[in-house]
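Data card: per-record layout.
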Amino acid sequence: MICFPNAKINLGLHVINKRADGFHTIETVFYPIMFCDMLEIIKGKRQKAKGKSLNSESENTKVEIFTDGIKIDGSIKDNLVYKAYQLLDNDFDLSPIKCFLYKTIPMGAGLGGGSSDAAFAIKLLNDVFDLKLSIEQMKNYASQLGSDCAFFIENKSAYVLGRGNELENFEIDLSKYYLVLLYPNIHSSTSVAYKNVLKRGEFNEKNSLKNLLSQPIIEWKNCVENDFERSVFETIPSLPNIKQHLYDCGALYASMSGSGSAMFGIFETKPQLTDELKKLLVFEGEM
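The structure for this 287-residue chain is written out next.
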């Protein structure tokens, strides 16, 4: 079976405070976009797959992952698809599988690519092995793999609180708009972004993203913020210029996604991008 784990963007992001458990309380809105990886899972034996295997020859494991596209460093045991299999295997004693993962969504970009791969792996394993897991059960497994993993189970726009794992349905339709997604090929460290971010201290209901995003999109430029931009822009100085270029090309709203370093612009129609922005383009299309 094959699926296509997609990315997300953040429509605003407020960092409220640091929690006792070491995580941060945030407020954001996740919006799914059709910029996708490709994941295939097959039970039992298959012909030799193309691509680089994350498994070393000495590892004795029930799951083997082959990758292509963007290079994935590290051991198989660090891969979230592998971890998703292990979670379900612990409860259901699954038979061995082979996976093929084609990476298109860059890492360290604030797009949730690894989290999406993990969530879609759970959904795919549920189908492949006919586990009959409910949505809530799959969300529970996904939340054990990362703060934003559970979002990709239902994969629809959501208002997000807590450490990124408290999801509420949030109806917002951007389907008539056009998305431009840029990646400067620079990895942004989430831990460094949190370390340097200026926290708000308390939740402000009046200026909550629920209220701010209910305004016409033309107003977002003046009120919807990603709190990570101030600190991340200092470490990656090309990003504020990219944001301004998006506005110069006619974006209604432009922002960094998550803790970066991907930047996006929302337009009324397909824009004429500058040659400089075209070099950074990784996805464009209707939202």
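Known properties of this structure: DSSP finds ten helices and 13 strands in the chain. The first strand starts at residue 2 and ends at 3.

See the next section for split statistics.
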